[in-house]
Amino acid sequence: MARGAQPAARRRRISVLLLAAAAAAAVLLCLLVLVVNRDQDRPIRERCTATVSGTSWSLNPDQAVNASTIAAVAVARGLPPRAASIALATAVQESGLRNLDYGDNAGPDSRGLFQQRPSQGWGSQEQVMDPVYAANAFYDALVQVPGYQDLPITVAAQTVQRSAFPDAYADHEPEGRAFASALTGQSPAALTCTLNPAEAPGDPNTVLAAMTSLYGQQQAMVLGDVLVVGATGEYGWSLAQWAVANAKALNINEVSFDSRTWTRGSGEWKASDAPDTQVAIHIAPVAVGNG
User: Fold this and answer.
1) Is 189 left (phi over 0), alpha (psi -120 to 50) or beta?
2) What is the C-alpha to C-alpha distance for residues 111 and 123, in angstroms, rounded to an integer?
3) Which of 141, 191, 287, 288 has the fewest Cβ atoms within 10 Å of its own Cβ atom?
4) Rounded Cα–Cα distance for residues 33 and 201 (Å)
5) Domain residue limits, the chain
6) Distance CA 243, CA 124 (A)
7) DSSP label at 117?
8) Helix (H, G, I), strand (E, B) or coil at 285
9) What does each of the 291 residues of the chain score in pLDDT, given as a tens digit?
């Protein structure tokens, strides 16, 4: 009897060990699911990145909006991308592409993206705090510089700004050129934004109004939650990448143009069947079932 009991006892011990191992595995699986779900719910670090010639530069979404405004003003005025490169490098140096309501290095009354001084004839404080006005004022001065397109960026910028730090603009030339190349449409699908889900529904008409205020009147129509704008070539890519840069501010979920589609979820431009004659901007829709 003693010998027969030994195998039975051993089998019971093995069963207990197997049950314990299964329970431990189940607990581990639950913990992994919790960790994965927690990571999925955790907000991502939102960034907008311009990648040109294999080099990438990043801005936060607010800075990207300001960069897109500066570039859009240049496009609307018919200025060369070089003008946008100079302006963007200048704004990075002067304000970090932030619309500052105080004086930084330029002087006690300097304001805005370019730290323009009302006391030096740039306009009122209210005017220089308007990014569109400030960009136009900068370009008004830049186009008066003889041969500015052929000058080093730091020389052209300094001629306009008359900064106490004349060589500092050169530090931001690569970044300025990358964002200018993307946002003026010279480099297709070069600007991407990685964003959290939209916090509110968007409005196609609000997006169109913002675009029109910068680029001028557009051939556009609203189809439900989609704004469709007729455009081709570099101009189309400028509009498309402006929309990506403004996706957080304007609650845009998706932008399509010229065989590429950017989505908020992926944060990337991917191959698609988008036509090369129109930019389609998909707005975050009104949530269903909340009532």
Assistant:
1) left
2) 10
3) 288
4) 30
5) 48-183, 189-283
6) 30
7) -
8) coil
9) 444 555 666 666 666 555 666 666 654 554 444 433 444 456 789 999 999 999 999 999 999 999 999 999 999 999 999 999 999 999 999 999 999 988 765 567 899 999 999 999 999 999 999 999 999 999 999 999 999 999 999 999 999 988 767 678 888 999 999 999 999 999 999 999 999 999 999 999 999 999 999 999 999 999 999 999 999 999 999 999 999 999 999 999 999 999 999 999 899 999 999 999 999 999 999 764 443
DSSP bridge partners of 280: 228, 256
Q: Which amino acid is at 168?
A: A
The DSSP result for 25-57, as a single string, is: HHHHHHHHHHHHHHHHHSPP--EEEEEETTEEE
Residues 123, 129, 133, 137: is their CA dihedral positive or negative?
positive
Q: Which residue is associated with the tokens 């196609």? A: 204
Query: Are 91 and 97 contacting, i.e. CB atoms less than 8 angstroms apart?
Result: yes
Residue type, 286: V
Give the whole-angstrom CA distance, residue 271 versus residue 285. 23
> Residue 200 — φ and ψ, nearest 5°?
-155, 160
- Which helix (DSSP H) or strand (DSSP E) does residue 251 occupy? none
pTM of the predicted protein model = 0.83
**Distance of alpha carbon 230 from alpha carbon 203, whole angstroms:** 18
Tokens at 119, concatenated: 């006391």
Give dist(CA 237, CA 54) in Å, integer: 19
Give me the amino acid identity at 64.
A
Q: How far apart are CA 88 and CA 70, in angstroms?
A: 7
